[in-house]
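Hi V.,

You were right to ask for the full record rather than a summary. Here it is.
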Amino acid sequence: MTRHNHSPPRKNGINRREFLSMTALGSATLLLPAPWMPRVKAKGGVEALLLSCMDYRFMDDIGRYMKERGLTDKYDHVILAGASLGATTDRYPAWNKTFWEHLEIAIQLHKIKKVMIMDHRDCGAYKVILGPEHAENAEIEKETHARYLNRLGKQIQERFPSLAIELLLMNLDGTVTPIDFQ
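Predicted structure:
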């Protein structure tokens, strides 16, 4: 019995069988670790869980801030619109549940030692949930964020008294202002 190659004749390229062979070989190389890729760390504790807002304008600044703090690869990151407000608002109860479930998993799996809650100025979620008046001036905006940051910090402390709490407010220029935990 004669086998027939069902690939069309070769003109200026490769036939289907050659293409599929090369594709399979190329895909297999993606499974191999590359020397430039960081090694995945298996077990062990991390320093913190960071809760921040989803605002795309601040993602690079957040990463830079955490790196400057020496926390690269040492924190879990939960992202909710409004950060502290998102985790405490009655308007979106599923967000509250999501935050608490993530926190419990971070404690269980990664043995976190603190929770860092980072809100930011000019937050759209605050405007949607609370109204634009919370940001009429810089001081009112800071006080509003401080109130929700502290609210969530107190709730965390009540449930998990051994965790340290750090409250932060990112400014539009990417700098971060610590907020007193009261």
